Amino acid sequence: MMFRSDNGGLDAILKRPEKKPNPTFWQGFFSSPWRHLADLLYEKRQVEPRYHTHPVSIVCVSDTHNNEPNIPDSDVLVHAGDLTQTGTMEEVQRNLDWLQSLPHPHKIIIAGNHDFALLSEDWRSLRWGDIVYLQEARTKIRFANGRTINFYGELGGTCNHGNLLFKYHPHEDTWNDKNPQEVNVFITHAPPKYHLDVDGYGSDHLLKELWRIRPRLHVFGHVHGGYGKQVMTFDRFEAAYEQIRRGHAGIGALLKMCYYYAAYLLSPAAMKDAIPRTTLVNAAIVGGLRDELRREPIKVFI
What we know:
The chain is of the alpha/beta class. It has 8 helices and 13 strands.
């Protein structure tokens, strides 16, 4: 685990991505034909989240950076880190006080790369109230409808994107087999690669870990421009797409994607429902080059 700032906060802020490039069709095609076509095909296939007969509502937020957005009611409130801007004890406590004032019966947070105090030895001296703090830890909640859901959270690494705490070289695997497989809700600060990460700024090792543990929901933030919700499947279509994005395959993998997409369209509903999947949520509240944008929390049912 590394604590470093490299070129400093200002340099990181000026260089950070805020939105995915949106070239014309021909610009994208001539730049990287197989990748561009794979992106279009991936966006074309819409897979519904997995539903449960006894749903639990979870409202997801991240990267509030001292802002206090309006939080809708839910069974669980999850904050995926960067509550603060400078990470002092006083700043963290103000944000914990705000979270404690909310009516949600269950509140779970992890640290972000700005939240220095949460990674210091003094974090236990903070007033936590009804908030559960997870750092390489899990908690289990049993709900009134009979459901029991396992939550696991950790900051992990931020893959040289951003500044301040917990940055790793992209080739350094900080995730391999660390996380328990019986996780229903997985909370990290950084996104998985190629998913709600603007243009590949997420962690490839985290993506591989998702394939292993396959949670029902993965909540994250950090890359502000990746805000949104997406369903990731664990099937041959997804595997072919990732091979193209990594630059390990070309037209052959693209043809496979076309075949798997056609097969999906022709499949009966029961076969579609049987595909393993994870709902991904990048819940970054602030956005814009100067963090001038404010987004809404994202509420999901699992």
